[in-house]
Amino acid sequence: MLVIVTGVSGTGKTTIGNLLAEKLHLPFFDGDHFHPAENIDKMSQGHPLDDLDRVPWLQTLADKLTDSEKTGGAVLACSGLKESYRQKLNVNENLRWIHLKGERDIIWNRMLARKNHYMKAGMLDSQFATWEEPDYGLKLSIDQTPEEMLEIALEYLIRNPMKMAVGVMGMGVMGKSLALNLAEKGVPVSLYNRYVAGKEEAVAQKVMETNPDFANLRAFEDIENYIESLQAPRKILLMIPAGAAIDAQLDTLIPLLEPGDLVIDGGNSFYKDSERRVFRMKEAGLHFLPMGVSGGEEGARKGPSIMPGGDPEGYALVEDFLGRISAKDQSGKPCVTYVGQEGSGHFIKMVHNSIEYGEMQVLAELVHFLRFGFGCSAEQVSGILFDWGKGEQKSFLLEITADLLLFKEDGDLLLDKILDQAGQKGTGAWSLNTALEYGIPYSPLAEAVNARGVSGEKTMRVAYSKTFRHEFEPVKESLETWLPKIKYAYSLARIINHEVGFRLMKTVSDAQGWKLNFNEIARIWTNGCIIRSGLMERISAYYSDDQSFFEIAGVKEQVIQNRGDLAALVGLGLTHGFALPVMSAGINYLLGRITAESSASVIQAQRDYFGAHTYQRKDDLSGQAHHTLWNTSFRTE
Ligand code: 6PG
Question: Does 176 participate in catalysis according to the annotation?
Answer without folding.
Answer: no
